[in-house]
Amino acid sequence: HRSLREENAHLQKDHLSLKEENTQLQQDHRSLREEHTQLQQDHCSLIEENTQLQQELADKRGEVEEQSIRLESSIINTSPITPPTHVVALVCITKNKYKLVRVLRTYLESTLKDIQKEYDLSDITNWEREGRLWKCDTPNSINTAYLVREILKNHNVRVDGNRQLIFWSYGMNHLIDIILAYQNAAGGGDRRAEEVFQRLNYCQIIFSQYKGKI
């Protein structure tokens, strides 16, 4: 009888231990379910925020494209009083490094050859096809290159005036938009150039917010 009582007491003790362990497991299970539910809700919230940011970015891109079209249209519809004798040329030396020159038409080729030799670049006949060169007739009364360098310096863009170099990280097309802003002999270049900077700043903010949400 004593042996049975001892075995019974031992079994009761094991039973209590199992009940306590089972209770703890149930609590852990509930905690995991609650955590899983919260994670699902957070995931859904992130998807909604991401979708909203993508839509805002798409809308802003549409606005930027419309503004760019209006800007190009205003420039195209402005005809110089006298035929232009000067050309403004933008040459991509390396990534984020450009040379902006304003020269007489007759001196353009020799100027480009000097640039090619100075920086050991490819043959100038391939530059436009490679996307290295952009050039445009410029009004005789406007020193486009000087005005562009000044507005860039005002926005803390590194400029070497003596060597006519611009250190620009936003892409060649945006730099061309700023140059085009000063192609209207009637003036207003600063205002149009500021619009380009505003678009760049806004897109940069949206992109930073978008990256931060991912």
Give a quick rundown of the structure.
Residues 1-31 are annotated as: Disordered. The protein is an alpha+beta fold and 214 residues long. The protein has helices at 2-76, 108-119, 127-130, 144-154, 172-181, 189-213; strands at 86-94, 97-104, 133-138, 159-160, 165-167.
Shape: elongated
Distance between the termini: 70 Å
| Widest β-sheet, arrangement of strands | 3-1-2-5-4
Pairing-aware structural class of the strands and helices?
Answer: alpha+beta
Share of helical residues: 55-70%
The radius of gyration over CA amounts to 33 Å
The biggest beta sheet reads: 5 strands, antiparallel
SSE topology string? HEEHHEHEEHH
Number of domains: 2
Low-pLDDT runs of 5+ residues are none
Total of helices: 6
Oligomer state equals: single chain
- Count of extended strands: 5
Question: Beta-sheet strand percentage?
Answer: 5-15%
Q: Averaged pLDDT, please?
A: 83
Region (Disordered): 1-31
Q: What labels describe this entry?
A:
214 residues; alpha+beta; 2 domains; five-stranded antiparallel β-sheet
Structural notes for this entry:
By secondary structure, this protein is an alpha+beta fold. It folds into 2 domains: 1-60; 86-209, no CATH class. The chain contains 6 helices and 5 strands, in the order αββααβαββαα. The protein has a 5-stranded antiparallel beta sheet with strand order 3-1-2-5-4, sandwiched between helices. β4 and β5 (165-167) form a beta hairpin. The mean pLDDT is 83. Residues 1-31 are annotated as: Disordered.
